[in-house]
Amino acid sequence: MTIRRFSWRFACLGLAITVLWGIYAMARPVDEVVLSIGESYEQVRRQSHSTLPAIEFNANWGGSVSRLTRLHFVDPQFGFVTRAAKFLAVHYDSAGNVDSVSLSPQAATLPLDDAMAILVDLQAQLRRGGWKPFRGERSQPIEDTPARRAEIRKCSAPTSYWQADTKYQVSLNIRCFRSEDRPTDERYLITLDLGPPVFDDDRPGD
């Protein structure tokens, strides 16, 4: 009887710990990386609540998070915030200063409706902040229209480019993601790349 009672109490304790951990995981705020282009990578680590690893000079030129993390890009006019990202990498130069960021602002691959909602929200934030479509003749902003959705479903991976004055550029890409074991399960992945101006062969338009 004593052994059975102990086993039952141990099982209840284990269940309680599991439930409490689940509640904590759901209630815990999402991690956040706070940065601006050009600032020290180590300063970014200090001011952020994230799992970004320490800098590795001459060994690695960037750090990636290991938990869901949103990006808070800091700029008086052009700043924006993304949704939580499973993949977020901060790249730095040989002096240890941030030179670009790459992320997929979602927790997992998503159905097209959900992916488009995230993409439309990001482009709306950019517009409100004064970002202008860039390379517009070849890469128009990705609007939520039947024609665009049909294009995306064909895995054409459209990309839009945005410029913030002469300071920054952003590329936004959405592509299909299908696994070999579930080829008919349509899922989509957004990729955002942020950094200083790279393209100068077109003028930003309205």
3D structure, described in words:
The protein is an alpha+beta fold. The protein has one domain (31-195). It is 28% helix and 31% strand. The protein has 4 helices and 10 strands, in the order αβαβββββαβαβββ. The strands form 2 sheets. It has a 7-stranded antiparallel sheet with strand order 2-5-6-10-9-8-7, covered by helices on one side. It has a 3-stranded mixed sheet with strand order 1-3-4. A hairpin with a 2-residue loop joins strand 9 and strand 10 (182-195). The radius of gyration is 21 Å and the shape is globular. It starts with a helix and ends in an 11-residue tail after the last strand. The relative contact order is 0.13. Mean pLDDT is 85; it is low at 9-27.
List keywords for this structure.
single chain; 206 residues; 7-stranded antiparallel beta sheet; 4 helices
Count of helical stretches:
4
**Shape estimate:** globular
Radius of gyration using CA atoms only: 21 Å
Largest sheet: number of strands, sense, barrel closure: 7 strands, antiparallel
Domains counted in the coordinates: how many? 1
Tell me what portion of residues adopts beta-strand conformation: 25-35%
State the share of residues found in helices, binned by percent: 25-40%
